[in-house]
Amino acid sequence: MSQTLNADPQELAKFSELAHRWWDPESEFKPLHRINPLRLDWIDRLATLKGKRVVDIGCGGGILSDAMARRGAAEVLGIDLSTKALSVARLHAMEAGTPHVEYREVSAETLAAERPGEFDVVTCMEMLEHVPQPDSVVRAAAALVKPGGWVFFSTINRNPKSFLFAIVGAEYVLRLLPRGTHEYARFIRPSELAGWSRAAGLDWVQTRGLEYNPLTDRYWLSDDVSVNYLVACRKP
């Protein structure tokens, strides 16, 4: 794993500027609030969160971390490199009285060196496409999970359709996200993520697509991984 900080200062600044809006369900983070029940239920069906030790890589303001703690996880550690986002996450946990969740400003690689094999579940959602070395994060996730544990990723495929839907459609036409949220060159093909996962010693168990219909304003999971997709892996 890289000893340099695997982060893009521009990406950190971008999300830090919006940190105070993380928990506003009508803000720029509205899509995350809308898809959170879908991804939470999917993770829980496969890994059964109750009583598990979980680390959420790239937790931002804690939307998924908070939900997993409320679902019954014994311990949820949300990690991120955005000081402002973590402050918002801690404040929300305190105000909402969320049990068994804490947040720490640390990279996945550093935590993996400190606490290898300590977690039953590792999540890294909507984060890989924002870092310079996503394969390094995959290796860190694999190091953090214990044998038999689960690792979950979600990201965006790289193809003409994803450019049209995730950037042109979501950022410019529908304005679901601020312009500049994503860079097409950083999108990740499933074959690339599969290669990194296998190299890190993870077995792919399931892949799901995440779709959105702007006419009905509905999100759902499907078998179509051509744009947004989620991956469940397991460590032998």
Structure, described:
- O-methyltransferase that catalyzes the 2 O-methylation steps in the ubiquinone biosynthetic pathway.
- Belongs to the methyltransferase superfamily. UbiG/COQ3 family.
- Keywords: Methyltransferase, S-adenosyl-L-methionine, Transferase, Ubiquinone biosynthesis.
- S-adenosyl-L-methionine binds at residues 39, 58, 80, 125.
- It comes from Caldimonas aquatica.
- Strand 1, helix 3 (63-70) and strand 2 (75-80) form a beta-alpha-beta unit.
- The mean pLDDT is 93.
- This protein has a single domain (9-234), classed as Vaccinia Virus protein VP39 (Rossmann fold).
- The chain is globular, with a radius of gyration of 16 Å.
- It has an eight-stranded mixed sheet.
- The longest helix has 18 residues, at 30-47.
- Helices cover 39% and strands 25% of the residues.
- It is α/β, with parallel strands linked by helices.
Assembly classification: single chain
- Globally, the shape reads globular
Distance between the termini: 20 Å
The beta-strand count equals 8
Counting helices, strands and paired strands, the structural category is alpha/beta
The figure for the number of domains is 1
- The name of the CATH superfamily reads Vaccinia Virus protein VP39
Write the layout of secondary structure elements.
Blueprint: H1 9-17, H2 30-47, E1 53-57, H3 63-70, E2 75-80, H4 83-96, E3 101-105, H5 108-114, E4 119-125, H6 134-144, E5 145-156, H7 160-173, H8 190-199, E6 203-213, E7 218-222, E8 228-234
Parallel strand pairs: 1-2, 1-4, 2-3, 4-5
Antiparallel strand pairs: 5-8, 6-7, 6-8
EC number: 2.1.1.222, 2.1.1.64
GO molecular function: 2-polyprenyl-6-hydroxyphenol methylase activity; 3-demethylubiquinol 3-O-methyltransferase activity
Protein name: Ubiquinone biosynthesis O-methyltransferase
